[in-house]
């Protein structure tokens, strides 16, 4: 009985987390290489899947116009969404609004 329960747990909980992580990690690498349009797409995908860090990074890109035309409203909405999660950078961002 333990094996089927673990298999079910893996497919319902662990596998989706692994897939979310992949988009985010690839997005970070694309961003570091200056591939902002690719990073933007992958951070958006990550954010849409519930990764709050992906939402935060997407908000930063919208704020600074990296890979997209700057959009303050979209950036603020994404920061608000990201900061509903446990994203440590949110505390710093609220202190440094510009």
Which terms would index this structure?
Serine Threonine Protein Phosphatase 5, Tetratricopeptide repeat, 77% helix, mainly alpha, 5 helices
Can you put this structure into words, describing what you see?
The chain is mainly alpha-helical and 98 residues long. It has a single domain, classed as Alpha Horseshoe (Serine Threonine Protein Phosphatase 5, Tetratricopeptide repeat), CATH 1.25.40. It is 77% helix and 0% strand. The protein has five helices and no strands. Helix 1 runs antiparallel to helix 2, helix 2 runs antiparallel to helix 3 and helix 3 runs antiparallel to helix 4. The longest helix is centred in the N-terminal third of the chain and has 31 residues.
Q: How is the secondary structure organized here?
A:
Elements: H1 2-32, H2 36-48, H3 52-64, H4 72-82, H5 89-95
